[in-house]
């Protein structure tokens, strides 16, 4: 889970599409991996019937109901990641089209 949080911070740095398309793809991959690690971490800690598993619950109790809340957070971050990926791909596409349009004007 801690690896997932660190990978998310790395993905935020790499995720901006205006740097380079390879960095954007690397950021997307790292972000998807961090979400998978987050889901695995929530599944591991949410399935443990002890008090510290209540870290993932809303009311601070033990593991009752925190698994669904954790997966809701993970799914929300997955959808945010997918929207960011779509925006990045569209912006890269438009940058390529703009560059092609400029080169066609020169000819």
TrEMBL record:
The chain crosses the membrane at residues 6-24, 29-48, 68-94. Keywords: Membrane, Transmembrane, Transmembrane helix. This is Uncharacterized protein. It comes from Geodia barretti.
């Amino acid at each position: 889970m801690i690896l997932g949080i660190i990978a998310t911070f790395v993905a935020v740095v790499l995720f901006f599409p205006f740097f380079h398309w390879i960095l954007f793809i690397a950021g997307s991959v790292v972000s998807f991996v961090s979400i998978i690690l987050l889901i695995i971490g929530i599944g591991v800690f949410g399935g443990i019937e002890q008090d510290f598993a209540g870290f993932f619950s809303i009311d601070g109790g033990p593991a009752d109901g925190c698994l669904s809340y954790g997966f809701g957070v993970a799914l929300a971050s997955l959808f945010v990641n997918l929207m960011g990926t779509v925006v990045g791909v569209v912006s890269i596409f438009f940058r390529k089209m703009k560059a092609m349009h400029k080169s066609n004007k020169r000819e």
